[in-house]
Amino acid sequence: MRKPLTDRPVEDGSMNGRMMQLEFRKAVKEDVPKLIMFLKDTIVEVYGQILSREILQPWVEGDRLSSDVNQLWPKMIVAEKADEILAVAASLDDKVAFLWVHPAHHRKGIGSAMLNIVETELEKSGYKTAKLECFSDNDRAMGFYLAKGWKILCEEMDEEAGALKIVMTKTLTNESRECANGP
Ligand SMILES: CC(C)(COP(=O)(O)OP(=O)(O)OC[C@H]1O[C@@H](n2cnc3c(N)ncnc32)[C@H](O)[C@@H]1OP(=O)(O)O)[C@@H](O)C(=O)NCCC(=O)NCCS
Q: Which domains does the chain carry?
């Protein structure tokens, strides 16, 4: 069953200031083909400048994305508008495992809303702090997480990806979320 996680509308600037009603909900099995398409469509925009073509190839052309989504979809939440998936996020244990907003919809508050939902779910699961990993060269995501109150813990080598990644952490309290979300 499709269960909304929040009914808070997110304003889409491309709609001339009108409210675009986004639904934030847990992913369901029927989303899997759309999720694979969404991630395949955006992976080069997200990681093309950060990871080598050889490293990306199994995801872009092979079946790594498909097998990851088939395994991870029960942990995913989606932002959807008119049957189109605009963003995907997932948690795994105490981690924000990933958060992707479609490039056509960046800087409209969708990433913030998704992150807020994931952090709330982690807190409800009993975690007091959360972690995430972000490639060091992913300036856009680093800017986003720092703005959302995440702190840098350390930098390490991701051997599989052949790139440096930053481990970040955040204390999960309503107060820290409200501060990071602004007035
Ligand atoms: C990172 C990402 C999730 C942000 O999502 P978003 O919906 O664009 O973010 P929001 O609109 O909620 O931005 C909230 C705040 O974060 C900061 N921020 C967002 N994008 C930023 C950027 N490119 N540079 C610097 N700061 C940024 C700003 O402070 C922004 O507030 P403002 O727009 O009022 O200035 C999105 O860019 C994305 O999906 N990137 C590709 C996937 C990715 O790299 N995911 C993270 C992997 S670890």
A: 4-181 (3.40.630.30)
